[in-house]
Design brief:
The chain is flat, with a radius of gyration of 30 Å. The protein has three domains: about 50 residues, Roll (Ubiquitin-like (UB roll)); about 90 residues, Up-down Bundle (Receptor-associated Protein); about 250 residues, Type II secretion system (T2SS), domain F (Receptor-associated Protein). It has about 400 residues and is mostly helical.
């Protein structure tokens, strides 16, 4: 928030001049009245004193804060609360040291709402970036008086999710770069190299093999319709992205990704790992299993898996054990179901779910490594084959001409 300079008098009649964070002059005066300061003058910041990051937040141009910033904030808040620092002072410290403008703005808003008498959970719920899972766990921590412990669990949960996401991203970065470079090379061959050979072949007046003619036709298509092709790809991508944002399109896309040959297992295990980790975190915080299941379902990205797990929740509502309906889901591993059954029978379901989540995350890591090993050589072979085919097709008439001359 912008810093407003002010001058005024305290209750004791002492003159005071300082700065205060507020969204506008009216809010600055309101905050100062709460501090029992009689304001004589409030000066808004000049354009040279304004915070560019804050200006972008106010204009709606800044990006929301991510998991990394949220994890850091959660961990620091847990440390301060554990050290016995009052919640208002914690929020004030974190607001002043936060470098992300969007999160800094949110922390200030949370601080104001808590000062007005709202609970931390209610204040967090009003801000973007704090998911229902996060707020529900904070609520449970406040009710049980173990907020610092819950925040530490949340930080660990967020760190594991971010670590998994980074593993998948890093595994796919190299193949994506190779594909991108390969597409540029093939495009360059078709648009700049092949036409040079075409001119040579026309001058020689020799018969062109069908392989060479095919490459020439593709080259001419790229030369004449490249802009149209790019426009079509962009339009098609936009239509596809808009379609999968609809309820029907999202459901169909989620079902397709689950059945995809190479990535289906990664999608399923990723969602189930997230589900078990989230459920374990909520149960260990004392959240009732029915409420915990509902929140877990809402946080899942795959609508088909969420739909299947909603049936599990309904069965639990009807009085059945959680493992009984889970065993009917085809893609849910039987070994995992048995582990959860043992945990449920011993009253240690939350700890068993943590072990299950660890199993899923280990399998995901192995899947990512195997996919990388499979995809990289496959991409190189395909791209090398395309480039080799183009070059052979262009040199074939020259070889045929040389053989005929002999």
């Amino acid at each position: 928030m912008p810093k407003f300079k002010y001058a005024g008098f305290t209750q004791d009649g002492k003159k005071v001049e300082s700065e205060i964070d507020a969204s506008d002059v009216s809010e600055a005066k309101k905050l100062l009245r709460r501090q029992r300061i009689r304001v004589t003058k409030v000066t808004p910041p000049s354009i040279f004193e304004s915070d560019l990051g804050q200006w972008m937040v106010d204009a709606g141009l800044s990006k929301p804060f991510g998991r990394v910033e949220l994890t850091r904030f959660t961990r620091q808040l847990a440390i301060l609360i554990n050290a016995g620092v009052p919640i208002m002072e914690c929020l004030d410290i974190l607001h002043k040291q936060e470098t992300n403008a969007t999160l800094r703005n949110s922390v200030k808003a949370i601080q104001v709402q808590v000062e007005e008498g709202k609970s931390l959970n209610e204040a967090l719920s009003s801000q973007k970036g704090f998911e229902k899972l996060y707020c529900s766990l904070v609520k449970a921590g406040e009710a049980a008086g173990i907020l610092d412990g819950i925040l530490n669990k949340l930080a660990e949960f967020l760190e594991k999710q971010e670590k998994l996401k980074k593993q998948v991203k890093s595994a796919l970065t190299y193949p994506v770069i190779v594909v991108f470079v390969g597409i540029i090379v093939v495009f360059g061959l078709m648009v700049f190299v092949v036409p040079q050979f075409v001119g040579m072949l026309k001058e020689s007046n020799q018969e062109i093999p069908w392989v060479t003619q095919t490459v020439i036709d593709v080259s001419e298509f790229f030369q004449h319709y490249t802009l149209l092709l790019i426009a079509g790809l962009v339009a098609g991508s936009l239509l596809f992205l808009n379609y999968i944002k609809t309820v029907k399109g999202k459901h169909q896309w989620d079902r397709f990704t689950m059945q995809a040959p190479l990535f289906g297992a990664l999608v399923i295990k990723g969602n189930l790992g997230s589900f078990t980790r989230t459920l374990a975190t909520m149960l260990s915080a004392g959240v009732p299993i029915i409420d915990a299941l509902q929140i877990c379902i809402e946080t899942l990205d795959n609508t088909q898996i969420a739909k299947d797990l909603a049936k599990v929740r309904q069965a639990v509502v009807e009085g059945k054990s959680i493992t009984q309906p889970l065993s009917r889901i085809k893609y849910f591993p039987p070994l995992v179901t048995q582990m959860m059954k043992v945990g449920e029978s011993t009253g240690n379901l939350d700890n068993m779910l943590i072990k299950v989540a660890d199993v899923f995350e280990g399998e995901i890591e192995e899947l990512v490594q195997n996919l990388t090993k499979m995809i990289e050589p496959l991409i190189l072979v395909v791209l090398g084959g395309i480039i080799g085919f183009v070059l052979i097709a262009m040199y074939l008439p020259i070889f045929m001409s040389a053989g005929g001359a002999e």
